[in-house]
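Ligand: flavin-adenine dinucleotide. Inputs:
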Amino acid sequence: MMENYSTDVLIIGGGAAGLFAAIRLSEMKPDLKIIVVDKADIRRSGCLAAGVNALNAYIGAGHTPEDYVAYALKDAHGIADKNLLLTMAKKLNSVTAKIEQLGLVIFKDENNNYVTRGWRNVKINGENIKPILAAAVKNFPNVKIFNHVNVAEFLRDGDKILGAYGFSTRKKIFYNFAAKTTLIATGGASGIYLPNHAGGSRHQIWYSPFNTGAGYAMGIRAGAEMTTFEMRFIALRCKDTIAPTGTLAQGVKAEQINSFGEFYQKNYGNTTSERVYAVTAENLAGRAPCYLKTVGITFAQEKDLLNAYLNMAPAQTLRWIETEQLPKNFNVEICGTEPYIIGGHTAAGYWVNVNRQTTLKNLFAIGDVAGGCPQKYVTGAFAEAEIAAEKIIAQIDEIETPARKDFDVAEFEKFFANEEFFSVDDLENAMQSTMDEYAGGLTQNYRFNEQQLNLAAKNIQRLENLSEKLRAADMYDLLKIFELRERLTVAKVLIEHLRARRETRWAGFAQNLDYPNRDEKFNCFVNSVTSDGATKIIFRELEND
Amino acid sequence: MIKIDENKCVGCGRCVDICPGNLFFLEKSCVKMRDVRDCWGCCACVKICPAKAICYQLAADLGGTGAKLFAEDSPQKLTWQILKTNGEKIILEVDKARANKF
Ligand SMILES: Cc1cc2nc3c(=O)[nH]c(=O)nc-3n(C[C@H](O)[C@H](O)[C@H](O)COP(=O)(O)OP(=O)(O)OC[C@H]3O[C@@H](n4cnc5c(N)ncnc54)[C@H](O)[C@@H]3O)c2cc1C
Ligand code: SF4
Ligand code: SF4
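Predicted complex:
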């Protein structure tokens, strides 16, 4: 069955960024027709299904948006766009006030001021951030929500985006959404590399295993310019549960300590990638395991930690309690994760201008899918949502409603007709092992050389060809096939980016063993455009001086 | 990973709707999991199940010992319950109006 819709604005992905955009657009123009499509249910979809622990991007008292830009540039070792950062930073505090208005509980002092963690973090109770956003969106009658619809591809005419199409994750229904303007907000990509636990707990990972890089893949296939995929994000996390560590490091000021009892971090620097590098280097030097030193915190602190983790990563609280290794008495072991591609933490994603317009006509990108602007986190995603919304409203009246453009259902149907073959799991394992071994995964301590990248590229191409022959028995199988194919597309482009940056810029995130040092020649963006399956690298100047 | 108690499930379908990974389906008014290895551990299903038919457990490769984590959601508070294998029951209440200290 086929359903056709036409709208002013199509928002793909009802996560933090997508929902905030729907709210801002509706406030500015209550009669604007908006469609929000999500592969899951917007009440708990995306990164923030379990909740959010703190608002990680905020300008605290005595600081300015320019301070935030300087901090983010330094943390990215120079590879970020100053103008994107500044436009985002200027909105961080107003979007914080707005999410509070919508119902998020924020920690305040007796003078009604937010209590900050350092100068950039606001303490909250964020367990229900997604239900809050979803409820706010449902209040606008101009917004139509499609839950459990997976968007697969843009509708386009050359480089002009005319909407998108996809399928229900449950019933055999295909959807065609024609739109004057499209906003992509599908988050980043996990699951490209072998995860920390490859067996029974393969999805006990930090980033959402259901953000599979759909937005990147759709953009790549449509010829959008992408930036900085080679800046992969490796998170420093609690061993086993892969729960965030910021709450320990910043909340109770727990410092990194190795098994010799040495506080080693000062030897490595304090950017995000240097903190990850510190753990890898200590492990390789035989001083594993590494911990965050929590021993000695007070009973009250411990109690607050247990609650804080329940609001964001309940497995960690359960682990503390059931193993009876409470943080007051036992340090928390830490580890690096497998690499992710996330524009909200690093600069990887769509190449956008200050209005968050991509290089494709009538397509905007915001949140984790958008590049050039690291250290965004949830409030930065909100800020980008507002920036894009304001530009969309300014120009929507000049855009004509596109005529209906049909797509070929055979693109989907063919998978139901395929014979029994390899399974999605088979090919996913092969992809993750290849990326791990040859493209700097966790087991390789994030190291690779060019010969290995060549092998990785060959293998990924082989797997992409094989994936054409996968068989789907139902719509969920079809979803899994598309998720795998999105990851393969992202992997292919990622390998080209890793190859192009012939230096080691962020040792914690990636070490190119052929070029183990930083090289000032690469004070530039590595961008790419893919057409007919071939990825062309474009070096773009940084405009930060 | 999550565990479903089929005897307690009333087949309301709330978990089917809420899971961010589309991992549940209903079969003869009882819920089934497609592949338990695909669970992220977000506990959205644990919180929304009205029959306490779903719990979260730490898998063996995560240091688990078999304890079960349940939750009961209400507008004012979220009540978490940990059932250890020795029968001990630990209750942790999170007041929704209070922010995290950290
Ligand atoms: C575990 C975790 C904890 C975090 N904690 C914090 C924190 O404490 N503080 C903080 O500031 N930030 C935190 N972050 C970062 C923050 O969550 C992200 O920056 C933010 O959610 C990004 O918003 P987004 O809209 O780009 O992505 P998401 O919020 O993930 O939204 C993406 C949406 O797109 C949907 N989608 C994906 N593919 C498709 C498709 N093909 N078709 C239709 N829909 C699709 C998904 O279902 C999802 O709803 C955390 C992230 C994680 C993973
Ligand atoms: S814990 Fe989250 S990912 Fe796992 S089954 Fe429940 S809702 Fe789905
Ligand atoms: S929410 Fe609970 S009762 Fe309802 S279908 Fe799921 S497991 Fe069964």
